[in-house]
Design brief:
It is a single chain. By secondary structure, the chain is of the alpha+beta class. β2 and β3 form a beta hairpin. The radius of gyration is 26 Å and the shape is elongated.
């Protein structure tokens, strides 16, 4: 099924439902196909901790830097 952008805007919920049920939906501009409406397929869960042990933070990582504080806050109260 090919629909123009204006029709797709007006009927987006219906088009999504049709795509979910396996129908091929192509959105066109001036009858020139631009994009295809497809069902999203999750890539899987993110793996946390991939860089564990690859680097270490310096002990003073969260310490404030006077020069940076002065740039943000100025010289005094």
């Amino acid at each position: 099924m090919i629909v123009n952008i204006a029709e797709a805007k007006a009927n987006l919920s219906k088009l999504i439902n049709r795509a979910l049920h396996g129908e091929k939906i192509v959105i066109a501009k001036n009858n020139t196909p631009l994009v295809e409406l497809i069902v999203h397929k999750p890539e899987g869960k993110r793996q946390l901790g991939l860089l564990r042990g690859e680097f270490t933070l310096p002990a003073d990582f969260l310490d404030e830097d006077e020069a940076i504080d002065e740039m943000f806050y100025g010289n005094g109260p």
